[in-house]
Amino acid sequence: MAAAVDTARKVLVVEPDGTTRREIKSACEQDGYQVLEVDTGSDALKQVEQSRPNVVLLEVTLPDGAGFDICRELRKIDTAVPVIMMSSRSDEIDVVVALEIGADDYVTKPLRLRELVARMAAHLRRARLESAETTRSRLEFRDLMIDVNERRTYKNGREVELTHTEFDLLTFLASNAGKVLSREKILNSIWGYEYPIETRVIDVHIRNLRRKIETQPSRPYYILAVPGIGYRFTNARPG
Q1: What pTM did the predictor assign?
Q2: Which of 121, 129, 127, 125 has the alpha carbon at shortest distance from 30?
């Protein structure tokens, strides 16, 4: 029996395969989501503009183009909506490209529907917490400043463009400067669900952050790897 529909949990499913789309819709509706369905990238962009979904499930392979291209265009319309890309392709390059162009998450097929719904719920929960957060202000380091309330990042006074998830990850690391954070801790705090995630998703986001905030990404100053455990953010303050 489906749960009562929550209009604040509106999911757009962009999936050309009818069987897969129906399976996703059924799983989402059982959890109380309002489901919008499209099978092409062009229709997806129209729905994002018209309906403003709260989360988007986006297949990589679409009949009218690559899901990667649609994700880029989607980000021009809405920079904040969580985007979870779906694909039968699990190559490292596909994950890297998806996250670099602004996707928040990447899941491989065959889909584990309970896990997929849990990931959606986690992204929505995080977005709601962020919209309610107004107490923190700024985190300042040597040449880096993070304006938490405005969700803006500056290096040497120049703004750095970060994706939604990159900003959340950077803020979490910087808020715990000096501490060693395991991948599991990062996962639970940023993605917010207990299902296993491939560590490369976290590592790719870290790599992207380094490229954007480090003076020498290959020799990072701020985000340091702790072999076998996770990462540590340098706790050096301006002075």
Answers
A1: 0.72
A2: 121
